[in-house]
Amino acid sequence: RWWVLKSSTISSDTKQQAEYESMLLRAIALYESTNPADLQYVNALLYLGNVYSGDRGDVARGLEFHRRAKSALALLPERNDAQAALIEFNLAIELEGLGDSAEANASYERAATLFLQTHGERDHWYWVTLSNWADAACRHGDRERSRSPDRGRANHRTRRYHSSAGDDRAR
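The chain above was modelled as a monomer; its predicted structure follows.
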């Protein structure tokens, strides 16, 4: 836990990226050997995925860590839909970046549904997800779906079902 918390004191300055990465890798190694069913383990995987995918442009490596975060999230004793939404959002962006539009679409839908159910329709991340999802649909030639966000919102309302709300490292 200490390594994850300590890593959050490091700025996003690229000069400190190596130290930030090192702290997260230490945290991950410790959690894997002691307590993989801890939310801070999920956070470390999520943050490191963001470093690789967002900061370094290594989308495949970021995807690997976000998939691991999703798997680790399933081990938690209590369900955490806020964290699941952030993970799905990151997975959607990476999957789209790697050309897997079908899986990206499914992740965008899961993320939007989770954000809506967890935080409601006024949540910033819900709208960011819908916007990115529409943009992805447009880029892949599905202009009709990209122009009608109400269709997606209506679907989300009928299927009611951020650990780090405000966390700047979540993308």
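Residues 150-154, 156-171 have pLDDT under 50 and may be disordered.
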